[in-house]
Specification:
Blueprint lengths: L4 E4 L6 E2 L6 H10 L6 H19 L2 H7 L3 H15 L11 H19 L1 E2 L3 H10 L3 E6 L3 H10 L8 E4 H4 L6 H11 L6 E5 L2 H10 L3 E5 L14 E3 L4 H10 L1
Parallel strand pairs: 1-4, 1-6, 4-5, 6-7, 7-8
Antiparallel strand pairs: 2-3
Helix pairs in contact: 1-5, 2-4, 4-5
Protein name: HAD family hydrolase
GO molecular function: hydrolase activity
Organism: Paenibacillus lycopersici
């Protein structure tokens, strides 16, 4: 069925948060200013931090808790990495935890500055509004962190509903999120599409409540769990062509 409402994800669907951001460069900038080591040692510590980060974010429950305060969460696994690398300890001039807090703050600042709109995304949102679709922005994360990105890029006036995990009290993939958005926009599940890059949050969970899931998949990853997206696109701008195709 042709949609009446389209729900859009924010990070890596509308704005480049991981994809298209030089995350390694952000880590090197943040660590290089705080750690007085040679290049080889510094690289080893950065790789250790990245390994801790990958482990931490791999678990859905840790992810849910940690994304509510990214700076604090990062400081925690940075401190663990520094301690394992031998930085800090009772005899150190400064604890690993104190250095980790500054590295986390510097990384957050560098990464925030690197965030940009994905090419064609803003034009696509304007196009969807002009065509009369009801639009919801549904994003996980803290209220302050996600609001700052929404405000920075002037996205709020473009949506009929903005649902942020830190404001609503729960986030994707909880069914309550999608059901609430449908209720607020007065649409049925079969009249709504969820569009985004996270397979579990934007495909598996929405399709479990009878919505259509459109997967933004620039890396051309394979679907998992025997679930097939309604459609797959590489960038949000391709949504315009998909809608035209289905309208004809």
């Amino acid at each position: 069925m042709y949609p009446k409402a389209i729900f859009l994800d924010l990070d890596d669907t509308i704005i480049a948060f991981d994809h298209g951001v030089d995350v390694d460069g952000c880590w090197r900038l943040a660590c290089g200013n705080e750690l007085p080591y040679d290049e080889e040692t510094l690289t080893g510590i950065i790789e250790r931090i990245k390994g801790k980060a990958k482990w931490y974010w791999s678990d859905p429950e840790r992810h849910r808790i940690g994304r509510m305060d990214l700076a604090k969460t990062r400081a925690g696994f940075i401190a663990e990495a520094l301690q394992e690398a031998g930085h800090g300890g009772p005899a150190a001039a400064e604890s690993a935890a104190a250095v980790a807090e500054r590295i986390s703050a510097a990384f957050t600042d560098a990464r925030d500055k690197a965030i940009t709109m994905i090419p064609g995304a803003l034009e696509t949102i304007h196009h969807l509004r002009e065509r009369g679709f009801k639009l919801a922005l549904i994003t996980n994360g803290s209220a302050s962190g996600q609001r700052s990105k929404i405000d920075r890029f002037g996205l709020a006036p473009l949506f009929d509903l903005i649902l942020i995990e830190g404001e609503f009290g729960t986030g994707k993939p909880e069914q309550a999120v999608y059901l609430h958005a449908m209720q607020e926009l007065n649409v049925k599940a079969e009249e709504a599409w969820m569009v985004g890059d996270n397979f579990d949050w934007e495909i598996v969970a929405p399709q479990a409540v009878a919505m259509k899931g459109v997967w933004v998949n620039p890396k051309r990853l394979a679907p998992t769990g025997g679930i097939t997206p309604f459609r797959t696109i590489e960038t949000l701008s391709e949504l315009r062509g998909l809608l035209d195709e289905l309208a004809n």
